[in-house]
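In keeping with the milestone schedule agreed at the kick-off meeting, the structural modelling team has produced records for the first pair of proteins. Each record is given below as a sequence line and a structure-token line. The laboratory manager (R.T.) confirmed that both were archived under the project's standard naming scheme.
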Amino acid sequence: MNHFIYRDKELYCENVPVRNIVQKIGTPLYIYSHATLKRHFKAFNDAFKGVNKLVCFSAKANTNLAILSLFSKLGGGLDIVSGGELYRGLKAGYASNKIVYSGVGKRIDEIDYALKMGILMFNVESMEELEIVDQRAGLLKKKAPVAIRVNPDVDPKTHPYISTGMKKNKFGINIEAAMEAYKVAAKLKNIKVIGLDCHIGSQITQTGPFKDALYILKTMIKDLAACKINIKYLDLGGGLGITYNDEEPPDPVEYANAIKEVIGDTKVKLIFEPGRVIVGNAGILVTKVLYRKSTGVKEFIIVDAGMNDLVRPTLYEAFHAIKPVVDSDNEEIKADIVGPICESGDFLALDRNIQKVEQGDLLAVMSSGAYGFVMSSNYCSRLKLAEVMVNGDKFQVARKRQKYEDLTRGEIIPDFL
């Protein structure tokens, strides 16, 4: 459930007409529902009631400080993949010992930053990374808490660009080599082995792949214990999918029951890294119709949001439902909904059946709360959008729209020119 609903043919976010927000803030813009964000986080967290666990929101899905702050206040932790996300997490109020650092390419300065801040653990993804973490911890006179990300070669049955747990993916250490990696890590004087990590992919709509991976990890925990390497934390990553179109992903309770069925009485603290499932359907992108045109073989609706604002359709051929902000009962047409960027790949939808619109009409691109603004860019020197959070009958700008002067901030024309 989300809180974007029609009342008298007008789209509301909670108790605020979307049109009212646009009149004050302009388009394009992202709108997030506080009630949906809170409900989704609690639904996931409560599904594991009675289980020793920490729900670490995956910051890469949406790093808006208002959203991060909300999940922190709800008792959550944070999964990060960069020094910048660590900075944002600390700024949003997360305790450093609730932050897990994932990612295949951690820089030395980022590792140092995380060590100094005292994060919960590093999810290490290669032997060379392990060596660097050991070296930096030694120089800083720290013990680096570490989990090794194991690649179990499980097919998550999702888009190949967001599959992460197979041998052909860049992530983690192959299951065959993982035991040796743990033995090496256990002997390093500046490393403290505390966890086992696995993340098989994103937008997964079945519980089967999660269970398959967990059976492998559970066996590995026993094998490690036999080598006197005791695992305290089992990080199962994220990846639970949402409904964009006609998908039928498991709800958090079904997912939790599948995990509990397999994990049994294994004595570990579970860490989860949900992202999309929490924020995906909690946000929309609102855009205005600029022009319409027909080439005789194709109808186009040209809007003021482009691939730089929401890249998922271009990058993954991802589907986002597109709805009128005010339902006019007009007939449906088939059209490409495209943006202003000078790229043929600049589209929000292709050959989409959509209500016939007029210049100035508003459209809502649904399920845009995850991997929306966070993947946006200034391509074509377009301004990054405003982000707004709605709470009941109130709304507030959570990120100001950029101004033209922001585009050149930090740039310097060299003296020799």
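The second protein of the pair:
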Amino acid sequence: MTFAVDQLCFDLALADAPVPERRIRKGRSATATTGQKSFRLESPVHSRAARQARGAVSYQAGLAAEDQVARAYTRKGADLIAERWRGKGGEIDLVLRDRTGLIFVEVKRARTHDAAVARVTAQQVARLYAAAEEYVGTTHPGQMPDMRFDVATVDATGEIAIRPNAFA
């Protein structure tokens, strides 16, 4: 979608000022100067409202992915202990318990499972470890339960892939 700078200036009631004959392409911005005023004109792709809408959709999609993964673990016999547990060290998407011990799960959603796994950064793994250490310290003081760290990915079709002991 393109917008003519002169059309936008007309909409701003500035039609009497000379305006460059330049178009704004999708994902680009331009500055129009009329008299002594300058206006930054952005395409809707980068507008604040568009970014907020994309962020809200991504947030809800992430929550849905976490819910799907939690249900997959509970079908396999695990007990869900906490969702989006937050400590000083960071956030843990899911905390579960099964017969082997505690399971800390990082959930990622993307078009493909490989793309989702690629989004797990070394910094994120370090934060996950720190948050898990804090979680165990506050919920199991003086104990060291068996635990593992899984990465669960959800692709564009809703298929779930679980990688147990993903960081081992």
